[in-house]
Write a sequence for this structure.
């Protein structure tokens, strides 16, 4: 192609030479590109740029947000009143467009932990559209409940709609606001005495302060399970250091890989050993 654009006859000697040089250049470029892609930060930059550009394109084209599109997709494809089908549709939507919803391996681990623990009173920090909330709510025993907090009002509205669509209004309460503010009113406004299970998945620098606030408000009991996502990437090192070293917690890590980046990620699963 390049040869003909240069107006050189491909069959001629000069044509062959130009063609060979182009091929060499192409191979060099490919080599350089794959070398760059091996460098973690470049790969990270590439993946994030791709996600942002594809989201921007969709947002301008459809003139709505990722969460609006996800909600419409779930309502169109899932069965109303069936949490499993809502979860499957949210997951399927992730194949079309990246969202912040919990990745499949971690969802399975959450299923397992909650099923074994049979917690009645659960609290989540960082609801997003409710994938992890619906996951937890699907596993808790009858009569149990989950209070979840989402900081962005529009996203909290989508989560409420999805919870309603899944038929879980009686089980899940979505609070709009910060986890910190919610913790302060859990006892007075939501009649929580002690929490059996806590899922931590909001902004990483708030993990530790909010955990300490739960301790201070005496909302943890001996045996409360605290599951925290994104331990290694993006990472909450101060939180991990605390739950892995403070004798008030017994912690194990669940290691897996991030889907897009193929980098190691982990969840911390801690059991509170402190006083009630
Ligand atoms: C990683 S997403 C949560 C994903 C969700 N747990 C799931 O698996 O489907 C993090 C969410 O936490 C919310 N968030 C960030 N900081 C927060 C805070 N301080 N309090 C409550 N929500 C917060 C963000 O708006 C975002 O929707």
């Amino acid at each position: 192609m390049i040869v003909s654009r240069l107006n050189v006859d491909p069959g001629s000697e000069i044509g062959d030479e130009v063609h060979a040089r182009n091929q060499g250049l192409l191979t060099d470029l490919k080599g350089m590109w794959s070398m760059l892609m091996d460098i973690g930060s470049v790969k990270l930059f590439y993946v994030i740029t791709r996600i942002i550009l594809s989201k921007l394109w969709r947002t301008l084209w459809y003139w709505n947000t990722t969460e609006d599109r996800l909600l419409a997709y779930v309502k169109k494809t899932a069965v109303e009143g069936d949490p499993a089908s809502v979860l499957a549709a949210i997951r399927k939507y992730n194949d079309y467009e990246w969202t912040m919803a919990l990745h499949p391996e971690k969802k399975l681990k959450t299923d397992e932990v909650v099923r074994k623990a049979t917690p009645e009173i659960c609290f989540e920090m960082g609801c997003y559209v409710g994938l992890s909330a619906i996951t937890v709510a699907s596993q808790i025993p009858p009569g149990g409940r989950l209070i979840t907090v989402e900081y962005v009002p529009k996203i909290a509205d989508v989560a409420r709609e999805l919870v309603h669509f899944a038929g879980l209004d009686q089980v899940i309460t979505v609070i709009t606001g910060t986890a910190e503010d919610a913790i302060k009113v859990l006892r007075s406004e939501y009649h929580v005495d002690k929490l059996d299970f806590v899922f931590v998945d909001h902004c990483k620098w708030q993990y530790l302060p909010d955990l300490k606030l739960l301790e201070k408000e005496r909302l943890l009991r001996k045996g409360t399970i605290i599951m925290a996502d994104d331990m290694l990437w993006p990472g909450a090192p101060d939180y991990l250091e605390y739950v892995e070293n403070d004798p008030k917690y017994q912690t194990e890590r669940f290691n897996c890989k991030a889907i897009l980046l193929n980098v190691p990620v982990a969840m911390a699963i801690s059991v509170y050993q402190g006083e009630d």
Q: What stands out?
A: DSSP finds twelve helices and seven strands in the chain. The radius of gyration is 24 Å. The mean pLDDT is 89.
